[in-house]
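The protein record filed below.
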Amino acid sequence: MMTPTFQLPQSGLFRKRSELLSRDARVVLSYERARAIGLAHGITLHDTLDLTKKFWDLHTDPILGLDGAATTLLTIQYNLVAGTLAQYAATTRPELVPLVEDLLRWNVSGQFCLTELGRGLDIFRMKTSATLLPSGEFDLHTPSPSDAKFMPPTVPVKGLSCIAIVFAQLYVNGECRGPRPFLVNINDGYDMCIGVTAKLLPPRGGSTPVNHSLTNFHHVRLPPSALLGNLNKSDRIHRDFMSSIWRVAVGSLALGSITVPNFQVSSYIAARYFQRRHVTGVHGKLVPILSFRTQQLPLMHAIAQAFVLKALFKWAIEAFMDKNLDVRVRHGVAACCKAVGVQHAQVANCALSERLGAQGLFEYNQLSNIYSEMRGISIAEGDILGLSMRLVADTLAQTYTLPPSTHQDSPLALHEVSLFEEATETVSSSADFTQAFMQYVQPRCQLMVESMGHRMAYDAAIDQGVSQYLIDLYLINAIKTDSAWYVERGMFTRQTIMRMEDAALSAALPHLDELLAEMKVEPYITSPIISDERWEAFSKTLPVYSSPWAETSQQKPFVLERARL
């Protein structure tokens, strides 16, 4: 039997110690929830390595809407860390199989230390170094404060030992051989490992707290087995690096798919509140606020987007798993899906929250939290703007081509083609491609990628038989994101767009209750405003402040006395 050359610090998930009791209880709860959700789905090494249906189903489980921090911990643990290690365990490092299984069972916490505070998206030029020593060991070091690994939650929590995949520039005999991944012990659940320092960042605000940290390494000695991969010098350093972080692309698609359950939860809450809340109508009778177009429009658009995006991600996952496609094409599909999913989700969540009035501001109604969580998702596993700029640049340079539309005469397909033709003409007519791209195209890259996502979603919805009234609502909403283009081309007038929207809404609204039932998300709704019964039960839990004489027949007279000096 092969003896593992990489030893984990010994620790258990449920060990207690007095110094841990002061930690933010919500952070600890999120770890518990992440573990419970992960174990309930029964993710195995096979699932995370081969990206099975079970792996993707985890990321569209509506329960994720209850705790954004648990979602963050889950996707780091199962996708970035276990997924990366599984690749090595299945090929060159079989001794890592027990570690992957420990990660999947939550016997150990895994983190992914890639981004640096001073680098941002320029991760290829990271400054963290790992120098090969004569003994065969490595010296892992953070040269300056700006080179600290940014965001991964590496502070000790709950007695759960923590390991991390840390990316650092490999130096051999003074030569830099490019960024490489290293397996590093971070803490034993109580104390940091020697040479490793984590600074706990303040909460992001508005979202469920994660113990995000700044992580530094001061000449940490690593065994030879810590290097994932080999020491060989490569003549394609950048491509090898991108290959080593390929799980980030998986994360882009996986995190983007979380927009579907988030849509379902937020639209369900808004719909039930709109049905429950009544105001006095023009004829003096009480009417539900759902009877007003101002409520109906954002609600039904959100529901339509939930169903259409579900079809989009089903198609995208199949494309992403197609090994016959160029890996860059698969990554491009993931980028488009994440961009359009987050775009729709943030607009919808903001609109629905506003239609809830003051109730939309409170965390207990879930929408404000969902909005904040989606802000984090828009950056995690690939910032949408950065992904968009890379995708558009590659497309204009004809490096590769994404799958074409299956409905090439549709308004959304024509819009996408036109935007890219305009950009191509702009850079082609300039003597300086790079300058023209940065000056005129770069500011429009995200809009262009979103247009690709709109087209893909529309195609997927038609091809998978989504109800026509939902497709019509989706189409109108996508048109409205750049209505000037459609008016300029003479395809529609503003009045035509308005009347098309009204017709689609009128066709969809009678199906509201059956659409809500089809979502099957009510068990995951904690908001008390969806029914009178829930609100009454919730109100009884609120702290009560009243006069101490409130229950007596004679109350003490209220006297305002002049303050004595």
About this structure: The chain has two domains: 18-244, 252-522.
